[in-house]
Amino acid sequence: MNNKSYLVKSIWQICCITHAAYRTHICTNKWRFGL
Q1: Separation between Cα atoms, residue 24 and residue 9, nearest integer Å
Q2: 2-30 residue pLDDT tens
Q3: Rounded to an integer, what distance in angstroms lies between the CA atom of residue 12 and that of residue 9?
Q4: 6 contact partners, CB below 8 Å, separation of at least 6
Q5: Euclidean distance between CA atoms 24 and 34, whole angstroms
Q6: How far is it, in rounded angstroms, from Cα 10 to Cα 4?
Q7: What angle do CA 9, 14, 17 make, to 5 degrees?
Q8: How far, in Å, CA of 35 to CA of 4, rounded?
Q9: Confidence at residue 24, expressed as pLDDT on a 0 to 100 scale
Q10: Which residues are CB-neighbours of 35 under 8 A, at least 6 positions away?
């Protein structure tokens, strides 16, 4: 049970980091190309 919670927490954290990086990348591109 504890191992499963840790795994889910890790996956969630990775997803959050990836999503934040993805959004930042889009924002940077919009600013760069003036869209």
Answers
A1: 22
A2: 788 888 889 888 887 888 877 787 767 77
A3: 5
A4: none
A5: 15
A6: 10
A7: 125
A8: 43
A9: 80
A10: 29
Q: Quote the CA–CA distance of 8 and 17 in Å, as a whole number.
A: 14
Which backbone phi and psi does 34 adopt, to 5 degrees?
65, 35
Residue type, 32: R
Instruction: Specify the residue for token string 């600013």.
Output: 31
C-alpha 6 chain-centroid distance: 18
H helices present in the chain, as ranges: 2-33
pLDDT surpassing 80 at residue 35: no
